Amino acid sequence: MKIEVDKRGYYGNFGGAYIPEMLYPNVEELRQNYISIIHDEGFKKEFDQLLKTYVGRPTPLYYAKRLSEKYKTKIYLKREDLCHTGAHKVNNTIGQILLARRLGKQKIIAETGAGQHGVATATVCALMGMECIVYMGEIDMARQKPNVERMRILGTEVRPAKSGSKTLKDATNEAMRHWINNPVDTHYIIGSVVGPHPYPDMVARFQSVISEEIKWQLKDNEGTEDPDYVIACVGGGSNAAGAFYHYYDNDNVNLVCVEAAGHGNETGESAATTVLGKPGVLHGSKTLLMQTEDGQVVEPYSISAGLDYPGIGPVHAHLFESGRADFYSATDEEAMKAGILLSRLEGIIPAIESAHALVALEKIMFSKDDVVVLNLSGRGDKDLETYIKWGKY
Question: Considering only the top CATH level, what class is 11-50+90-203?
Answer without folding.
Answer: alpha beta
